[in-house]
Amino acid sequence: MQVEGEAQGTEESLQKFLKDINNGPRHAHVVKLEKKEIAPKDGEVEFGFMKTSESGYEAMQ
């Protein structure tokens, strides 16, 4: 399964976030973590999920 996401925050919180997702949850096996920098979006304060045609999430529904 492939998972894609975006995050923004302080440099310190983003580094911790990347470390945590690279380890994955207890029963997960993370094979590869790719990252790229994108422009921050002002005013975003919420977290949400979105289906994409390229993710495994849509197939699980």
Automatic annotation (TrEMBL):
Pfam families: Acylphosphatase. InterPro entries: Acylphosphatase-like_dom, Acylphosphatase-like_dom_sf. Belongs to the acylphosphatase family. It comes from Aspergillus eucalypticola (strain CBS 122712 / IBT 29274). SUPFAM superfamilies: Acylphosphatase/BLUF domain-like. Residues 1-51 form the Acylphosphatase-like domain. This is Acylphosphatase-like domain-containing protein.
